[in-house]
Amino acid sequence: MTLQNKFTTLQSVLTERHIERYDEVEISLVAVLCKFHAVFIGPPGTAKSMLSEDLVETFRGATLFKYLFTKFTTPEEVWGPYDLRLLKDGVYERILTGKLASAELAFIDEFFKANSAIQNTLLTGMNERKFDNGIERINIPLTTVVAASNEMPEGEELWALFDRFHIRKRVDYIHEPGNFVRMIRAKDELPAMDLTMDDLREAQAEVDEIEVDDATYDTLVDIRSDMQLEGLIASDRRYRQSIKAMQATAWLHGRTVVTDDDFRILEHMLWTNPEDAKKVSRIVLQHTNPLDQEANEIIDMADEIAGQLAAALMDAKSKGVEKETALTKKGIEWFTRCKQLGEQVKKLENKAVKLNRPVNKIEKAKDRVVRVAREVGKNTIGLDHMDLKFEGRD
Asked: Model pTM?
């Protein structure tokens, strides 16, 4: 088995274990392949920590640091206690063994609860891979920090830490009921993977050899221009880092040159405020994968129907009206729109297969439309089981 195949197998295992987390798994792998840091943000119970821990524990021989931050976390807990033997002589050096300064891979939960006592040291450690130990600034072996948080950072100091994460992703609860059942039934153990830190270092070197042609740089310039027109500003450093991320994405999928499909990682690199994430995604996909952009638009339209349904149900309840009686006419209209969206999804799926393009976003659109149609049928037309039929590809 080739090294790339080992990583493909790992991606498949993690995707199977972490249901509806295809993007999160890919992001995690791209992060370690690039020596980047990644953060997952979302409500409790969305498997952010579980996925992050699975990743850092995958590579045999790696020195790890895993910790849950609280507002009371001290520098000693992160970087180690002072060496008492040296302290007698006025030398303030820490014992680094088992702490972040000795780790190659780290998982930190509730990262943005870091207090001011450790924020500056984290900035230097994550960005420069250096730590001030006593009077000496030393290099540390840190490759990647994967972090999880239940909320976005607040305050200028924490935003500076947020900027240290090359890749960011908001995580939500599982949407599709069938996937929810799969999650409940899933086994807890992660199969042992035949990957070592030496394998990771070799893969990182191979990523550097992935070709980036002139067309890729031209597309990146176009994306940057469109983002600036909409007031979306990413630093020059982040655009430079995006090339490495696209190389890693290409390598992970067995390609020797960056293609338009690899630009999708930029959806998780070029935004700062969460409300801008959809705008960034739209711009990136318009230039590189219009099919995925159409899938996103279908998801948005399905979400709009779901929102209208929720508002109508609440209104009917407040008036004491039977929901099926009050909403049958609207329900037929909403369900018809869902059927139309379903046809659009089927056409997109056929196009993607013919063009050999990824279908993950299209599958997500399909799941969303089916779920909304079920809710419409159940709550407005009085049907217990409502499904859209996707007969497969033409």
From this structure: 0.87
